[in-house]
């Protein structure tokens, strides 16, 4: 069973198909899911936002299988549905579309719809509309949806254009107005909006384009296994293959929590990944999807994580075009314990030693991030006093996040605040390396949750190469992706026993029984 995700202006839906389903089956399933005619679905279904039409999109009766069209489990397609905005205001016509539905996908003035036809005053030809046409249509549309132009202007400086991000990354402080007059105008605008936007919920209403359903986001989540500093090259390869070419980007949200109030030497840091637009995660180590075809993998991952004593945590995060940062799972895991130990010793500040520089102020119960590691949108919000507070007296111009704003807010409420983060150099800390629980890696074996699922042929290649290179069995079996796949090939109990052998640095002879089980499985399959 394959899951094909279809993103449309009215939301994302999943289509379940068999591996041998044809193109017509795909078109029919999409049409049924969105209540469309199959010909409409075939015409509007695209590979990406650039309107690159799906192969065989016009051949609704094609018997070609979807795998031959380059589609795999987890592939996301886009359905370009045009919304009918009705006639001009002068021509009264009933329209069942509610203002809330029309405003749902509008995040700024640039996203306002274009006039459906020329105004009566326009003297241009049939293909051109004048500035007055656009202005009058925008005013009429804004009145219809019950919003003011200022509501959308507020979003323009929060949701910076994608093309402006390299500039923000190079100089995150280059955002002040060019003259004192412009500076005064900006101040007046901020004061004008301070009463209108008084809390996070109102801010969410203004940028509904970026609002995500977190429960839907959790249909895909990452289970963290330890990653050593020597494995960063593998992560970079996963970024190039999984993120860069798929143009995924998003934001990060984290919260700190003790295991118990009695034992403050143990603590967790939880990370939620929020992708824009909403879509499932791709990670370097393991990606698990909560659907019917992966329940066994999910259970195996939970057992493996429990066997290593690991917290379920994301491995890394990156923006498209490599404009992002890598958050080491090892650093995050050591952060909680070190912060708790520092606090137990009475230290005022505990270092937040990750690629995102910052500190945890336990006395004031605040998480402080270096402003130079934050983006233009984050600083703008700080200066406008909308979501976070900027304290200029802090050394290094830190931006402070209160405990209420960071540790207790929902992930969706921070989407508006942290749309992008500028690159931050990855720092490898020796104490993070020594704090690793195991040497388990994800090297040279495909992820069971990736776009290209591993097969017995991958298992044979991996096993044969390891034997030919005379690698120890501890290194051979010390692969988290391999362990997940072996949970399908062997049994979960066998995998748990292998984990214990790896953790205790057992000799090669201890793995002999599992070598025989793998070889027998390969022989039985005829590979």
Automatic annotation (TrEMBL):
GO terms for molecular function: ubiquitin binding; ubiquitin protein ligase binding. Residues 86-98 have a biased composition (Acidic residues). SUPFAM superfamilies: Ubiquitin-like (SSF54236). Transmembrane segments: none annotated. Residues 2-80 form the Nuclear pore localisation protein Npl4 ubiquitin-like domain. GO terms for biological process: ubiquitin-dependent protein catabolic process. GO terms for cellular component: nucleus. Residues 86-110 are annotated as: Disordered. This is NPL4-like protein.
């Amino acid at each position: 069973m394959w899951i094909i995700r279809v993103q449309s202006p009215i939301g994302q839906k999943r289509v379940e198909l068999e591996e041998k389903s044809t193109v017509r089956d795909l078109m029919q399933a999409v049409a049924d899911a969105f209540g469309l005619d199959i010909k409409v679905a075939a015409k509007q279904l695209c590979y990406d936002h650039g309107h690159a039409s799906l192969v065989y999109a016009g051949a609704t009766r094609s018997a070609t299988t979807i795998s031959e069209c380059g589609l795999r489990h987890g592939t996301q397609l886009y359905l370009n549905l045009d919304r009918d905005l009705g006639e001009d205001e002068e021509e009264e016509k009933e329209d069942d579309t509610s203002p809330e539905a029309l405003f749902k996908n509008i995040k700024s003035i640039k996203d306002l719809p274009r006039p459906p036809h020329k105004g009566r005053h326009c003297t241009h030809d049939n293909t051109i509309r004048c500035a007055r046409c656009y202005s009058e249509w925008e005013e009429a549309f804004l009145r219809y949806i019950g919003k003011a132009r200022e509501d959308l202007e507020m979003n323009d400086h929060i949701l910076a254009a994608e093309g402006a991000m390299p500039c923000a990354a190079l100089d995150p402080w280059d955002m002040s107005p060019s003259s004192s007059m412009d500076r005064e105008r900006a101040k007046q605008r901020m004061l004008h909006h301070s009463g209108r936007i008084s809390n996070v919920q109102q801010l969410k209403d203004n940028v509904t384009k970026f609002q995500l359903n977190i429960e839907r986001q959790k249909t895909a989540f990452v289970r963290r296994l330890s990653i050593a500093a020597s494995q960063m090259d593998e992560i970079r390869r996963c970024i190039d293959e999984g993120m860069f070419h798929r143009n995924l980007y998003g934001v990060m949200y984290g919260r700190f929590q003790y295991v118990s109030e009695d034992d403050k030497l143990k603590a967790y840091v939880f990370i939620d990944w929020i992708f824009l637009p909403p879509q499932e995660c791709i990670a370097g180590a393991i990606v698990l999807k909560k659907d019917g075809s992966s329940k066994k993998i999910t259970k195996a991952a939970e057992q493996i994580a429990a066997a290593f004593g690991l917290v379920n945590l994301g491995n890394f995060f990156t923006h498209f075009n490599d404009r992002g940062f890598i958050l080491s799972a090892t650093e995050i895991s050591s952060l909680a314990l070190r912060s708790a130990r520092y606090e137990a010793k009475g230290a005022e500040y505990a270092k937040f030693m990750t690629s995102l520089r910052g500190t945890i102020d336990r006395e004031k119960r605040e998480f402080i991030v270096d402003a130079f590691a934050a983006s233009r949108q984050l600083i703008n919000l700080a200066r406008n006093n909308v979501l976070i507070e900027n304290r200029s007296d802090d050394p290094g111009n830190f931006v402070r996040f209160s405990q209420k704003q960071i540790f207790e807010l929902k992930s969706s409420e921070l989407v508006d605040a942290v749309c992008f983060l500028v690159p931050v150099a990855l720092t490898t800390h020796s104490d993070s390396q020594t704090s690793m629980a195991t040497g388990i890696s994800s090297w040279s074996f495909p992820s069971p949750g990736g776009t290209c699922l591993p097969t017995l042929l991958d298992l044979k290649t991996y096993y044969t190469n390891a034997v030919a290179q005379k690698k120890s069995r501890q290194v051979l079996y010390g692969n988290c992706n391999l362990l997940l796949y072996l949970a399908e090939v062997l049994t979960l109990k066998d995998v748990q026993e292998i984990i214990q052998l790896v953790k205790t640095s057992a000799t090669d002879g201890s793995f002999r029984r599992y070598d025989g089980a793998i070889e027998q499985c390969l022989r039985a399959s005829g590979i």
